[in-house]
Automatic annotation (TrEMBL):
Transmembrane segments: 12-30, 36-55, 76-98, 150-168
Keyword Signal: no
Pfam families: DUF4199
Keywords assigned: Membrane, Transmembrane, Transmembrane helix
Name of the protein this chain belongs to: DUF4199 domain-containing protein
């Protein structure tokens, strides 16, 4: 990956991370239940993908040589890694240092939401109780569990990044 692409991806990654922190801090301050809404999570993921794709597209325009799949994916993924890592650090500090009570409140809200969803799908009461007990026993907001979630999140972003890189890359026409 070219040095200019790395610099651009780093800048966009910082913008993404700062944006995530601001959005999450506002959600925390105004309505903690936003963290349990599916559309809130999808919105954050979409925002990350769009910003990373913008970074990749801009890197392509600034590239002085052939913008390969490797360069496109590298720019996209570096942007995502930096942005989501900043968000991860913020979440760990928020829910484990600043306000551990918020993590407990979110767990309760998540359990309520899950119960309603499982009941609407017609799940048996025993299965619902078992799933909710598992949620109650495991602290989703512990640093270890957030790191596990981060790893899965990076895998999901990487798969999407492969598609973005395929679309944005330049094809070598000299061998055609």
């Amino acid at each position: 990956m070219e040095q200019s692409s790395k610099k651009l991806a780093t800048s966009y990654g910082l913008y993404l991370g700062i944006s995530f922190v601001v959005i999450l801090a506002l959600a925390y301050a105004f309505d903690l239940s936003l963290f349990t809404k599916w559309w809130f999570g999808i919105g954050l993921i979409t925002f990350g993908i769009v910003l990373a794709a913008m970074a990749t597209s801009k890197a392509k325009k600034l590239s002085s040589s052939l913008f390969s799949f490797k360069n496109a994916f590298g720019t996209y993924f570096l942007t995502i890694v930096i942005g989501t890592f900043i968000s991860l650090v913020f979440n760990i500090i928020l829910f484990n240092v600043i306000d551990p009570q918020a993590a407990e409140t979110l767990t309760e809200l998540t359990i309520e939401t899950s119960r309603k969803m499982m009941e609407s799908f017609g799940a048996p009461e025993s299965q619902i109780n078992e799933a909710l007990q598992t949620m109650q026993d495991e602290n989703q907001y512990s640093a270890i569990n957030q790191l596990k979630g981060y790893a899965f999140q990076l895998i999901m972003y990487a798969v999407i990044g492969l598609i973005v890189a395929l679309v944005i890359r330049e094809k070598d026409t000299t061998n055609a």
